[in-house]
Write a structure and sequence with these properties.
Blueprint: H1 5-23, E1 39-42, E2 45-48, E3 53-59, E4 62-67, H2 73-82, E5 90-91, E6 96-99, H3 105-142, H4 148-182
């Protein structure tokens, strides 16, 4: 942990948000995380699918969603169709099956662009946190709460923290991008 826990925890949170976003990007094999961002209308309340059904992976290319309450089956189907998953749910009256087709080269490229976009947004967020930190310490220096030398040291530390998190963000995004072209 650094000497700047407030800013480091915000940067760490940004990296975690990126991981969550990227988990919902479909990479060719079945992964229940693609459903994380999808909510279903459950008695008037938008509820994550995981909270109303059991999600299993019967084989590498499919997911099976089994709602605990049969009345929510249609709602789950509708939510999946409305999402940007690009998969048609198969409803047999008891469970919904999602069969993940092989990704086309074009779709892989689209998803890679999406991954890059998420990565860039995360880097911008990290830089904004750096800016907030620098502004905070600059005010302290102007108010003579810290010396010019202290400020220079802090600025260097904040920059190193920023560089470390930018590198982590790039690694996370690169790993996801490689995953897209593996299969």
């Amino acid at each position: 942990m650094s000497d700047y826990p407030e800013f480091e925890s915000r940067m760490k949170k940004t990296a975690e948000v990126l991981k969550t976003q990227l988990a919902s990007v479909r990479a060719g094999r079945a992964n229940a995380a693609v459903l994380d961002q999808i909510t279903v209308d459950y008695y008037g309340v938008p509820t994550p699918i995981q909270q109303v059904a059991t999600i299993s992976v019967p084989d590498p290319r499919s997911l099976m969603i089994q709602p605990w309450d049969g009345s929510v089956l249609k709602g789950i189907e509708k939510a999946i169709l409305a999402s940007d998953l690009g998969i048609n749910p198969q409803n047999d009256g008891r469970v919904i099956r999602l069969v993940f087709p092989q990704l086309t080269e074009e779709r892989r490229k689209e998803l890679a662009k999406q991954v890059k976009k998420y990565g860039e947004e995360a880097k911008v967020a990290i830089r904004n946190i750096r800016r907030d930190a620098i502004e905070k310490f600059k005010k302290q220096q102007k108010a003579s709460e810290i010396t010019e030398d202290d400020y220079k040291g802090i600025e260097k530390d904040i920059q190193k923290l920023t560089d470390d998190y930018i590198k982590e963000i790039e690694n996370i995004a690169d790993k996801k991008e490689k995953e897209l072209f593996e299969i």
